[in-house]
Specification:
The chain is mainly β and about 250 residues long. The protein contains no helices and 19 strands. β13 and β14 form a beta hairpin.
Length: about 250
């Protein structure tokens, strides 16, 4: 396991909240004839803990004399092969309610902002609830570089969005996560059935408290994102897995 710059999971909540159900994409329609790929960043939009924003547009945050109109950006509650191509040249993207370039300067139109890591070419933008403060965007964006060089096939990316330290036991191996920390599990310990017995604990009230348990099948040639978070309604820590069934090698 090693830190990262950010399968189907069956979980059983124990003396705490029910674990959110695994989000499963619907069956893909018949594949259309392959089209020539357009230049730009290949980004999949994913909503989490919020309804997926609709009718939003992605703008290059780089200031230029003649900015291009924004491109429509799709956001889903699951991951599949579909992505949006964003012709960004810098390290930032601004999402607004309009394709008009001037909308990036209108606070009422700006819904989110994202900053990409160096050498970012493709990835997943997770739309999360914003701060709720007046004048700030409605959503915040967590950027996940999903290039296979940093998020390999068969791995699990665990992201602790909760305010407490968390440890996860897979078989007899322990993995710890500070609040806000992301780690990659590349060699998931498994049993004879190619699955892992999983138990999750949070450090709260000066003691480790179990909040979830279940079985994690090995991702195989796919990948899994595991999100640890505080349920906004119950204020309890929960765990949800999102399976990436459409890994692209380029």
């Amino acid at each position: 396991m090693k830190p990262a710059s950010f399968a189907f999971v069956a979980l059983l909540a124990i003396a705490a909240p029910a674990v959110f159900a695994q989000q499963t994409p619907p069956a893909n329609p018949p594949a259309a004839p392959a089209a020539e790929e357009q230049p730009g960043l290949k980004i999949r939009g994913l909503s989490f803990l919020v309804d997926a924003p609709t009718a939003i547009f992605a703008h290059d945050a780089t200031v230029v004399a003649k900015p291009l109109p924004g491109v429509k950006f799709d956001i889903k509650s699951y991951l599949n092969h579909e992505y949006s191509t964003v012709p960004a040249t810098g390290d930032g993207i601004i999402f607004t309610k309009s394709a008009e370039p001037a909308s990036v300067k209108d606070a009422a139109s700006v819904v989110a902002k994202a900053k990409m890591p160096a050498n970012f070419k493709k990835g997943i933008f997770v739309f999360l609830p914003g701060s709720g403060k007046a004048g700030e965007p409605a959503y915040r964006v967590m950027v996940i570089d999903d290039a296979v060089r940093v998020f390999p096939r068969g791995s699990v990316k665990v992201i602790n969005l909760s305010p407490t330290p968390v440890k996860i036991m897979l078989q007899k191996e322990e993995f710890t996560f500070k609040p806000g920390e992301t780690k990659l599990i590349e060699n998931q310990p498994v049993d004879a059935d190619n699955s892992s017995a999983m138990t999750a604990f949070q450090f709260k009230d000066n003691q480790w408290q179990r909040f979830a348990a279940g079985v994690w099948p090995h991702p195989g040639e796919k990948r899994v994102i595991e999100l640890i978070f505080e349920n906004p309604a119950s204020k309890q820590t929960e765990l949800q897995g999102i399976r990436d069934v459409a890994v692209r090698d380029n």
